[in-house]
From TrEMBL:
Topology within the bilayer: Single-pass type I membrane protein
PROSITE patterns noted in UniProt: ASTACIN (PS51864), ASX_HYDROXYL (PS00010), EGF_2 (PS01186), EGF_3 (PS50026), EGF_CA (PS01187), HYR (PS50825), SUSHI (PS50923)
Disulfide bond residue pairs: 430-457
Keyword Disulfide bond: yes
GO cellular component: membrane
EC code(s) of this entry: 3.4.24.-
Annotated source species: Lingula anatina (Brachiopod)
Keywords, in A-Z order: Disulfide bond, EGF-like domain, Endocytosis, Glycoprotein, Hydrolase, Membrane, Metal-binding, Metalloprotease, Protease, Receptor, Repeat, Signal, Sushi, Transmembrane, Transmembrane helix, Zinc, Zymogen
Subcellular location(s) of the protein: Membrane
Cofactor stoichiometry and binding remark: Binds 1 zinc ion per subunit.
SUPFAM superfamilies attached to this UniProt entry: Complement control module/SCR domain, EGF/Laminin, Growth factor receptor domain, Metalloproteases ('zincins'), catalytic domain
Coiled coil region boundaries: none
Name this polypeptide is given: Metalloendopeptidase
Secretion signal span: none
Organism lineage: Eukaryota, Metazoa, Spiralia, Lophotrochozoa, Brachiopoda
Length: 739
């Protein structure tokens, strides 16, 4: 018989990993979980991650394990675009940036917010006290967001390594204001093809069509910031999406014109179409023309649009421009301009010239007769007159000339000739409110004197007839009159004649703002306030106000308003505020007492049954929040349970008690092996020991690698550790083993 030494190496997973991590994995194995990775595979994955490029980080973060890679689904709905409750009120999105977001991430968030505020009607504003708001965070892995407004705090997660880019932040913010991925729209199969053979296993659902969404009747946008990249979720580096048209799938790093129109349609932004020409002229060198959903560049006459679609190239020179008279071109980069000789004008073709008829157009200085010429004109005089030395005026050769005629007081005259020569005629006139006394016509005589110099304008006294139609007072003045009023508080009406009361009543007593508490145990207060008092120049009454100055008012703020009016409709207002304050705290009934529970079931958590306390409040509205283990399953140790009741006025009450869970007995001491010892350490629910032999000794057969005692107080797999023996040599003598 051959004797051999037997040594059991132990389980591979226990031998490969050391320390407490090994024990945690071992416990996972005991309970049926086997999802831990071997150390070699963990190290390999960490090495690959260290070598990842920036683009790999972006794709890994954006195309994560959430729905469609970066969406946190709202409960019960995928139809964010059509659900008005998930739209942000008036397009205003309050936000906060959590302290775990690094400076690079804050710069990307600021740049994205600036684009939304500049190019759309969406306004991201810092949060004050709003219940519904967006919180930018880097607490978790991946880039993800909810679809639309959730009505409470909602996270836009931006992991530190791969999400700190403006386009990714814009993308996640589009989700938050209510938009799905572009390739999820119901008509996408008309424009793209999904290559499922290249998609990672288990990720095919990320390419499903969002059946409840809407296209908003907008074109498919291959460049939308919401579009997947060509190789999203690829398992082999090959494309997972391809275009069915000549348009390439190339997501932009900023909002496209169609993205902006989506926002305009969903949030009813004014005009709906975004005018790209308003920003840097659309990049056009000369003229930018806005179109529905886009824009285009054009050039002025004499220029052609170059291949880049934005700059213009000049094509004209004076040699070929065709000017009839003169051509002007100071810089070859600008279109030439034509001009004409004196006496000519440039025609509508901007090239040829035609004669200006100075006589017909009035562009001459002739006093009597104008005769047109090609490129010019000359003046002539009628019979009996000669042309003066200035060649434009005609003068009477007779020796006498009348002086400038005087105008009647308050009146004026209009003469047919400025030179006041014999036979010149001036017509005198008086303004409205005056009568003319004398002849209106003045004539320059051959002796150099005017006729009818005694004509005058006499004022009409309108107040002498029916007091000028004035209701009270009439004041005459040269050329007219004015009405007035002799009673205090009265002024002229729009007709300028009738006197009306324009002075409103005067409030002499108006109650101040009042703040009172509710009656004990009640949700209202009995309030007494001062009645309004007033005076008026005629007579006034209260036309609006409370029927009594005593009222039972519920909790809240109430505005009291008196309106006092006089017979002419002038009114005055007395307004004040009554605030009924709720100062009573809620009350708990049935608050459980603290208790101690013994857990002898061999489990980590135990169900503790108790009746929930009931909260009440005088306002009738009370909210209770509880802090306790889920399902009332309590772990070992002492746990504090807190019930917090609050009302709408921030009054509160607290019910607090403790639940202590203890084990009936501690783990018994495990005896050291003979010629050996144990290495033990405590864990959350007991102890764990590893057996060892002293130097020169060893186990005949390998014992369990680890002995564990848990909540049950029993050692597993058993409570007996085998002894250690000295090393020995074995020989075979007469079929017996001898040392």
């Amino acid at each position: 018989m051959k004797c051999v030494e037997m040594k059991t190496p132990g389980p591979l997973w226990l031998r490969s990993l050391g320390g407490f991590l090994v024990f945690a994995i071992a416990l996972s194995g005991v309970t049926g979980r086997s999802d831990a990775l071997p150390l070699e595979e963990v190290e390999e994955k960490l090495t690959r991650h260290t070598r990842a490029t920036e683009e790999e980080e972006r794709l890994s973060a954006l195309y994560g394990d959430n729905f469609e890679g970066d969406i946190v689904l709202p409960t019960g709905s995928r139809n964010a675009i059509r659900n008005f409750n998930q739209k942000w009120t008036k397009g205003v999105v309050p936000y906060v940036i959590e302290g775990n977001v690094a400076s690079k991430g804050r710069r990307a968030i600021s740049a994205a917010i600036a684009d939304y505020n500049r190019f759309t009607c969406i306004r991201f504003i810092p949060r004050t006290n709003e219940n519904a708001y967006v919180s930018f965070s880097s607490a978790n892995q991946g880039c993800y967001s909810s679809i639309g407004r959730t009505g409470r705090k909602q996270i836009i997660n931006l992991q530190n390594s791969g999400c700190y880019y403006k386009d990714i932040v814009i993308h996640e913010m589009m989700h938050a204001i209510g938009f799905w991925h572009e390739q999820s729209r119901p008509d996408r199969d008309t424009y793209i093809r999904v290559l499922f053979q290249n998609v990672k296993s288990g990720k095919q659902h990320n390419f499903n069509i969002a059946r409840g969404s809407t296209t908003q009747q907008l074109p498919y946008d291959y460049h939308s910031v919401m579009h997947y990249s060509r190789k999203a979720f690829s398992k082999n580096g090959k494309p997972t999406l391809e275009s069915k048209t000549s348009e390439k799938i190339d997501p932009a790093d900023e909002l496209t014109s169609i993205d902006k129109r989506k926002i305009a349609f969903l949030y009813y932004c004014e005009g709906r179409d975004f005018n790209e020409c308003q920003v840097n002229n659309g990049g056009c060198q000369q003229t930018c023309l806005n179109t529905e959903g886009s824009f285009r560049c054009t050039c002025r006459q004499g220029y052609n649009l170059t291949a880049d679609g934005k700059t213009c190239k000049q094509t004209w020179t004076c040699a070929t421009y065709g000017c009839q008279h003169y051509c002007n071109q100071q810089n070859v980069t600008y279109e030439p301009g034509c001009s004409c000789k004196t006496g000519f004008k440039l025609n509508d073709d901007k090239r040829t010239c035609s004669d200006i008829d100075e006589c017909a157009s009035g562009q001459n200085s002739c006093s009597d007769i104008c005769v047109n010429e090609i490129g010019s004109y000359h003046c002539e005089c009628p019979t009996g007159k000669i042309l003066a030395n200035n060649r434009t005026s005609c003068i009477d050769p007779r020796p006498y000339i009348c002086p400038q005629p005087p105008s009647p007081l308050y009146g004026s005259n209009d003469c047919d000739k400025p030179s006041y020569q014999p036979d010149s005629v001036c017509i005198q006139s008086c303004p409205q409110g005056f009568n003319m006394i004398g002849d209106a016509t003045m004539t320059c005589q051959d002796n150099g004197a005017w006729t009818n110099l005694n004509t005058r304008c006499e004022d009409i006294n309108e107040c002498e007839t029916n007091s000028g139609g004035c209701n009270e007072l009439c004041f005459n003045h040269p050329g007219g009159y004015n009405c007035g009023c002799n009673r205090d508080g009265f002024s002229l009406d729009k007709d300028g004649k009738t006197c009306i009361d324009t002075e409103p009543p005067v409030i002499t007593l108006c109650s101040r703002n009042i703040a009172v508490p509710t009656l004990p145990t009640q949700d209202f207060a009995m309030v007494t306030f001062e009645e309004v008092k007033y005076t008026d120049n005629v007579r006034a009454t209260v036309i609006s106000g409370p029927p009594s100055n005593i009222a039972n008012l519920p909790i809240g703020i109430h505005q009291v308003k008196y309106v006092v009016a006089d017979e002419a409709g002038n009114n005055a207002t007395c307004a004040f505020v009554i605030q009924v304050k709720d100062v009573e705290d809620p009350v708990f009934s049935g608050c459980p007492a603290s208790r101690t529970i013994y857990n002898d079931q061999g489990v980590f958590r135990v169900l503790v049954n108790y009746t929930d306390p009931v909260a009440s409040d005088n306002s009738g509205n009370v909210t209770v929040r509880v802090t306790s283990p889920e399902g009332k399953m309590f772990p070992f140790g002492t746990t504090t349970v807190t019930y917090l009741a609050t009302d709408d006025s921030d009054n509160y009450a607290i019910c607090r008690f403790t639940v202590s869970v203890t084990r009936p007995a501690a783990c018994p001491k495990l005896a050291d092996p003979i010629n050996g010892h144990l290495t033990c350490f405590a864990w959350a629910h007991g102890y764990a020991c590893t057996p060892h032999c002293d130097e020169g000794y060893e186990f005949l057969e390998a014992p369990p690698t680890r002995y564990v005692c848990g909540p049950s107080g029993v050692w597993f797999p058993n409570a007996t550790v085998p002894s250690c023996y000295s090393e020995y040599m074995v020989t075979e003598v007469n079929s017996e083993c001898k040392q």
